[in-house]
Amino acid sequence: MSDYVSHKLWGGRFSTPTAAALEAVNRSIGTDFRLWPFDINLSQAWAVALWGAGVLTLEESKTIERGLAAVAQKLAGGAQPLSSDEDVHTLIDRMLHDEVGDVASKLHTGRSRNDQVATATRLWSMDACVKLDAAVRTLQQVMVDHAAALEDALMPAYTHLQRAQPVSATHWMLSHFWPLERDRARIASASRAAAVLPLGSGAIAGCAFPISRVLLQGSLGFGTISQNSIDAVGDRDFVAELLFAVAMTATHLSRLAEDLIIYGSSEFGFVQFGEAFTTGSSMMPQKRNPDALELARGSGARAIGDLTTLLATLKGLPSGYNKDLQDDKRVLFDAVDMILLVLPAVSGALQEIRFDAKRMRKALSSSMMATDLADYLVEKGASFREAHAAIGSLIRASEREGSELDALPLDTFKSAHPLFGDDVLDWLEPARSVARRDVPGGTGPAAVSSQLRSAREALWPVAEVARGNELILRAV
């Protein structure tokens, strides 16, 4: 028990050992252990800040920095927490004491675990955003590759899961690209939200020593400094924003997966799944199950649950730090871990999918050009309402005959409306329908080519913008 007490960062006013049941629920090392690289980094920066504030001598600052580097090396080499380590901060404090002795006790001067964990979590989140953006970009590139190969293919588009109008298959593929582009914008916004330095806020009232928060901001790569110490230690908006970005990404993956699962069914047959990202049936030898896509579809619920958990936790908290916030990392890590598993699986599944252009083209029917027939009458001078009614009568006639619109006699068209001419059947050609919708954002050939160019440009590498000055300030 004495070994445990000796490494606590608190407890001076207590005379009774902590109850085992509280120890069990309070111990967070199993969750926050992964923060150690960021905690080491911010602790080294803090040692320099304490030197600058006159709290540490230059030699003490150098000793602590070197000790923290040695701790990092041991943790990177596989060192694991002891049962006495309450959290990652206690773990590092214990190991630092083992490395440099009593001078390690000076590192926590002017600092609280409240601003320490907020800083480490923000650093972790900024790093996670870089990984998330890369994973989303990889999937988008797969989409662009498919879109380029499908430029000559036509397929039905659906509303209410009913055949609506013919579109370019490229247009459909890119309809899943742009939601991911919005996700990347949300991820970038979440990164900026995380890049606000809380270190120096102390437990709640700020640091009593004249440390330079500007230099801390620069050395740790933050974009700005928190304006209020009470808010800084209790703010988890950045976690909520990142969880929302993940939840939206998971939602978009789910919708893509649902489209592909439907299109891969025997009834549709628009796509054929590959073998590397599908599984078989333990009973039915003929099955090829799109498990990667189905798991992606299910992941949306989990991400939404993580976001809801955090928001429900935050809504009832008073200002400042509260222990409830210890659980923010459980949902944050779960959501990010999950989406970083799902994104490569979806990318791989989509990459090996093969589209059947003939099957998609065969699924087009002349009744899908009903709107084109209405447009035909409008161009001849009819009102759209009048045209809509006339086409409705033609649809009823085709249903009575059990035939498609292009199988109806020309007289039937002329009976439905006198403005129908001999060229009406030309308007039932899917390619003509697609070509007519060439406005920006539409499915026409020129519009789709422009859209594909824009998608490629969205994936162009950009010069990395530093979150802060990203100065390397070390006393070593």
What CATH architecture label of the largest domain applies? Up-down Bundle
What is the number of independent domains?
A: 3
Q: What structural class is derived from the secondary structure elements?
A: mainly alpha
Question: Which residues form runs of ≥5 with pLDDT under 50?
Answer: 1-6, 465-469, 471-476
Major sheet strand order: 1-2
Rg over C-alpha atoms, rounded to the nearest angstrom: 31 Å
According to CATH, what is the topology of the largest domain?
Fumarase C, Chain A, domain 2
Overall pLDDT: 91
Brief rundown of the structure:
By secondary structure, the chain is mostly helical. The protein has 20 helices and six strands.
Topology (elements, then pairings):
Blueprint: H1 2-6, H2 20-26, H3 29-32, H4 36-52, H5 58-76, H6 88-100, H7 113-149, E1 154-159, E2 162-168, H8 169-174, H9 177-194, E3 196-197, H10 213-220, E4 224-225, H11 229-234, H12 237-263, E5 271-272, H13 291-315, H14 328-351, E6 354-355, H15 357-362, H16 370-379, H17 384-401, H18 410-416, H19 430-436, H20 445-458
Parallel strand pairs: 3-4
Antiparallel strand pairs: 1-2, 5-6
Helix pairs in contact: 4-5, 4-7, 4-10, 5-6, 7-9, 7-14, 9-12, 12-13, 12-14, 13-14, 16-17
Account of the protein in words:
A hairpin with a 2-residue loop joins β1 and β2. The model is unreliable at about 1-5, about 465-470 and about 470-475 (pLDDT under 50). This protein has helices at about 1-5, 20-25, 30, 35-50, 60-75, 90-100, 115-150, 170-175, 175-195, 215-220, 230-235, 235-265, 290-315, 330-350, 355-360, 370-380, 385-400, 410-415, 430-435, 445-460; strands at about 155-160, 160-170, 195, 225, 270, 355. It folds into three domains: about 1-105, Fumarase C, Chain B, domain 1; about 115-155 and about 170-360, Fumarase/aspartase (Central domain) (Fumarase C, Chain A, domain 2), CATH 1.20.200; about 365-435, Orthogonal Bundle (Ribonucleotide Reductase Protein R1, domain 1), CATH 1.10.40.30. The longest helix is centred in the first third of the chain and has 37 residues, at about 115-150. The radius of gyration is 31 Å and the shape is elongated. The strands form three sheets. Strands 1-2 form a two-stranded antiparallel ribbon. It has a two-stranded parallel ribbon with strand order 3-4. A two-stranded antiparallel ribbon has the order 5-6. The protein is mainly alpha-helical and about 475 residues long.
